[in-house]
Amino acid sequence: MRRTIPARVLLVVVLVAVLGACSGDGNEADATPTSAPRMNESLDVRMGRLDQSLREEAKWLWDNMNLARTNPRPDADRCAERDWGHQPVVMDAEARRLDPTASRMVDHLDYAATLIGQARDEWARHCRDELSAMNVVMFLESRLTPAYRSLNIVRDALDRRAATR
Prior knowledge:
By secondary structure, this protein is mostly helical. It contains six helices and no strands. The longest helix is centred in the last third of the chain and has 31 residues, at 133-163. Residues 21-35 have low confidence and may be disordered.
């Protein structure tokens, strides 16, 4: 089964890249940790950054899910669009062949991103009064639990790789 990046995520990534290219003054000394990855960054650093941003969004969604258990209507600040700065990690076929562990980690990150994106979309539907609180709670839990499992696999693998270097 082929996994694809949700259109919304792809649009955000492209938009961030275009805005970054247009607004940059060439001075990278003041670049933030959420800026575009530099060419000399290791694969593990990029995977770690994506893991962290996915965890931040998953935590926000989990908190929203818990809030929905007791409050049928979310507050406006819980429904505001947020940019989590996800920077997908891509490996070509040769890189995947040379580092199958990293390849599996990237696949887990992609899977988690897909599940988190589905949860985000359902939360947005709840914010638009298209879903009841109980329906959104069940859906978010069904997506966030396996997303966290995949993220934990990645974190454990990153920790093992760091310990051997």
